[in-house]
Design brief:
- By secondary structure, the protein is α+β, with helices and mostly antiparallel strands.
- It has one domain.
- Helix content is 27%, strand content 9%.
- The protein contains three helices and four strands; from the N terminus they run H-H-E-E-E-E-H.
- The longest helix has 21 residues.
- The protein is globular.
Length: 117
């Protein structure tokens, strides 16, 4: 069990130049999400050393339908925000929508089919 402070975070912008900057692979996570999650994790751990934070990267861009198989972008975190690799107080909670990447890998209900395992 744990806390997920921010479900499917998405960067915001005020123009085309800022949008291109924000959607650069890993930028949103490293410059905005990681510091925010670190501050949140401090509060979680101050309340209880056993608290676990589920953190996730920005929802966009996570995948792009480029080429025959598509491209999956890096999550942008070098380590768990407010922790270190192997931290028992962090869970990486990734939301990647593979059906947006390549609709051919999804079944009729939108889930990857058994043939794709």
């Amino acid at each position: 069990m744990g806390f997920d402070p921010f479900n499917e975070p998405t960067p915001s912008w005020d123009g085309v130049a800022e949008a291109l900057y924000e959607i650069t692979e890993g930028h949103f996570e490293s410059t905005q999400l990681a510091p925010l999650y670190s501050r949140i994790q401090e509060k979680y751990l101050a309340a209880s050393k056993d608290n676990v934070m589920w953190f996730e990267p920005g929802e966009f861009p996570d995948t792009m339908p480029i080429g025959p198989e598509g491209v999956i972008f890096s999550a942008g975190f070098k380590k768990p925000p407010g922790g270190e690799i192997g931290s028992p107080n962090h869970v990486f909670n990734d939301h990647t929508y593979c059906c947006q990447l390549n609709p051919k890998i999804c079944s009729a209900n939108g889930e990857p089919g058994p043939e794709d395992a």
